[in-house]
Write a structure and sequence with these properties.
Layout (H helix, E strand, L loop, with lengths): L7 E3 L7 E3 L5 H6 L4 H7 L12 H11 L13 H9 L5 H6 L2 H7 L4 H20 L1
Antiparallel strand pairs: 1-2
Length: 132
């Protein structure tokens, strides 16, 4: 099981020290290219009370979660389809690009041909993202 990523925060004292925080601030999430709803789906803890954005926390988020391409960015996938794919364990375009189509076809009502088209679209989006 993957270990949860925790943010580092500074204590508000004269002799400031670093400690593990409750969650990442909204500013840190936005700077890393994530929305609060994506963070929730990925299991990233969010502390809405924090207003600070530390570069080390932004770096941790970018390193571990990178840029997330939502399933709805793939041609032919709408919100209803995205919901069904998420229920099957496919959270984003990266997951779809790496998925075993035979197993996914069994978990969902979609044919392997349709899933193959979507997987090709996901791989294309990921290639474009790596070029940028």
């Amino acid at each position: 099981m993957e270990e949860k990523v925790k943010p580092i925060v500074h204590t508000p004292m004269q002799r400031s020290r670093l400690r593990k925080g409750r969650g990442f601030s909204l500013k840190e999430l936005r700077a890393a290219g994530l929305t609060p709803s994506e963070a929730k789906r990925l299991g990233i803890s969010v502390d809405r009370r924090r207003g600070t954005a530390y570069p080390e926390n932004i770096g941790v988020l970018k390193e571990n979660y990178g840029v997330i391409i939502p399933l709805t960015a793939i041609k032919g996938i709408g919100q209803a389809t995205e919901k069904k794919l998420i229920e099957a364990g496919i959270l984003d375009a990266y997951d779809l690009a790496q998925a075993n189509l035979n197993e996914l076809a069994e978990k969902t009502r979609y044919s392997e041909g349709t899933l193959k088209k979507w997987q090709g679209g996901a791989k294309g989006l990921l290639k474009e993202e790596r070029k940028a």
